[in-house]
Design goal:
Elements (H helix, E strand, L loop, with lengths): L10 H7 L4 E4 L2 E4 H6 L9 H11 L16
Antiparallel strand pairs: 1-2
Length: about 70
């Protein structure tokens, strides 16, 4: 989804473009547009920059327990 946006992109434009995307979090769901719209950045230069900002805006518990790996076993 984030790869399909034209960069640089403002938080408002990115939020509008992803208004139909819902993030599945460890503790529920969150509309991606709401997360992106809460950013205080002026613009994002790349999909990686936007993805990093989204991850930084989510509460820690939203992405699972810190220092836990689901890939072991």
């Amino acid at each position: 989804m984030l790869d399909s946006l034209d960069y640089p992109v403002t938080p408002a434009a990115a939020a509008a473009a992803c208004s139909d995307v819902t993030l599945q979090l460890a503790d529920g769901e969150e509309p991606l547009a709401d997360v992106v719209a809460s950013s205080t950045e002026d613009a994002f230069e790349s999909p990686d920059e936007l993805a990093s900002e989204v991850m930084s805006l989510l509460p820690r518990e939203a992405v699972g327990e810190p220092y836990q790996s689901e890939g072991e076993g």
